């Protein structure tokens, strides 16, 4: 259906149409076919409220400002946070010195004389007199 208001478009027949090569907007009055006035090819619709290239420039500026704000915030945060506390020292390792073993009592000696108790004799501690 044809609209009663006019539309704007651009021709995409590059190389064969001077209006397309010049990227010239073409106004088409309501009720007429939406084709190029020079070559007759269909036009690409242009949003009436948008300026050519204006939105992309604004977007690029916005992205650049965002990157700069993030960088400034990161630098400010790192400066404000100050130096970090040094890492705590590892706990000291305590090495215990080995305890001296209690001295063992010497084994009972047999009496030097031939007098020997029955307990010593039973334990094999008595010496026999030399012949």
Structure write-up:
28% of the residues lie in helices and 9% in strands. The protein has a domain of 71 residues. It is an alpha+beta fold. The model has no long low-confidence stretch (mean pLDDT 79). It contains three helices and three strands. It is rod-shaped and about 150 Å long.
Strand order of the largest sheet: 2-1-3
Q: How much helical structure, as a percent, in the residues?
A: 25-40%
Count of DSSP H/I helices:
3
Low-confidence stretches: none
The overall strand count is 3
End-to-end C-alpha gap: 148 Å
Question: Average pLDDT, to the nearest integer?
Answer: 79
Query: Could you tell me the radius of gyration in angstroms?
Result: 54 Å
Q: SSE layout and pairings?
A:
Elements: E1 7-11, H1 18-21, E2 26-28, E3 43-46, H2 54-81, H3 118-122
